[in-house]
Amino acid sequence: MDRCEGIEFDAIAPDEHGVTFFFKGDHMWTGFHGDATLLNSLYKELDEHHHLGHVDAAFRMHHPADPSDHDHIFFFLDDKVFSYYQHKLEAGYPKPISEVFPGIPSHLDAAVECPKGECVADSVLFFKGSEIFHFDTRTKNVKMRPWTHLPNCTSALRWLEHYYCFHGHNFTRFHPVTGSVVGSYPKDARNYFMRCPKFGHGSDDTERERCSHVHLDAITSDDLGRSYAFRGNFYLRLSDRQEEGWHAFPISNTWKEIGGDVDAVFSYDSKLYIIKGEQVYIYKSGAGYTLIEGYPKSLKDELGIEGPVDAAFVCGDYEILHVIKGQSMYEIDLNATPRGVRKEAPLFFPKVDAASCGPDGVKVFVGPKYFHYESPMLFSASRIQPHPHKISLELLGCDH
């Protein structure tokens, strides 16, 4: 089977390692490129004991409070459910759907997990026709809603905190709580979720933003390890499986209050700070991002420094914020009340576009290049330009 010919998938689900599997009949595909293999090559028991020629739906459970289910893959066929972990069928399965997920009907069309923060509580969304069943994994309460505005989903996928309904060889992005469609859809899945000859035009945003020689506006990693680079109206997100690289999205998709062209972004104390002009927006980091009530506020009131600024970064859990403005770097103690500049140091570079700090030190971004320093102190003290690295080639993984 060739998924590039245009396939309506039976199910799509990641495993506990984040590898995404696509299922159709008795075949499956691993990841976003590669040939089909037989379903029983990895899930042997489905064929050996149950002669399962296809699945109705599948999802990966997100339920950290219950390790016996968390990160397990659940397959559904007719009125039965199969639970797998590390590609092994759990003892006692298959079981009736009504036993494991009371209130959920049989002969499902699709299913997808929804962590707390993206949904009200850790949940699973089950699809059958135009009816959507929200299943609370802790209380096992079920709420049914008609989502007649969505196409009938034959599979569903949560990917990089976004939700997709697959129908035919197309997909539609939707909000997991309201079901509202976000953006212009449907779109052809072959342009986005698989590598196919004569396709891939839909990923032009990613290719352009990832491999452009234009400078970065900001770059950071949040407390959950999610990495972001900002440029113009787009941000690049590093996939949870780093070998799958960076992917571009409009900034307004994730931070709707921000139109684009940010000046600096940094993370501290489970919060993401986005600086734009004379204002700072602070978002609570979780499964998604929620703007804290009362924001945006002026940069002067929040951090004790006038805008605009060029870059900002914090190293690990250390409470010192480093703000770059022109040819100077300022230190601000984030635990102080009120906050304000406590130290200023001149810099070698006349203009810095972005900066970040990680376990390997400080990266300073200037135009299409970045420079590495072992610490903020060595960066501020240096008067010699170190060896330059290409952003697009060495950081974002472009091969040209």
UniProtKB/TrEMBL annotation:
Hemopexin repeats lie at residues 52-104, 105-146, 150-196, 213-258, 259-305, 306-352. Pfam families: Hemopexin. One of its GO terms (molecular function) is heme transmembrane transporter activity. Heme binds at residues 201, 247. Signal peptide: none annotated. It comes from the Eukaryota. Disulfide bonds join 4-196, 114-119, 153-165, 315-357. GO terms for cellular component: extracellular space. Keywords: Disulfide bond, Glycoprotein, Heme, Iron, Metal-binding, Repeat, Secreted, Signal, Transport. One of its GO terms (biological process) is intracellular iron ion homeostasis. PROSITE patterns: HEMOPEXIN_2. It is found in: Secreted. Binds heme and transports it to the liver for breakdown and iron recovery, after which the free hemopexin returns to the circulation. Belongs to the hemopexin family. This is Hemopexin. It comes from Chanos chanos (Milkfish). The gene is Wap65-2.
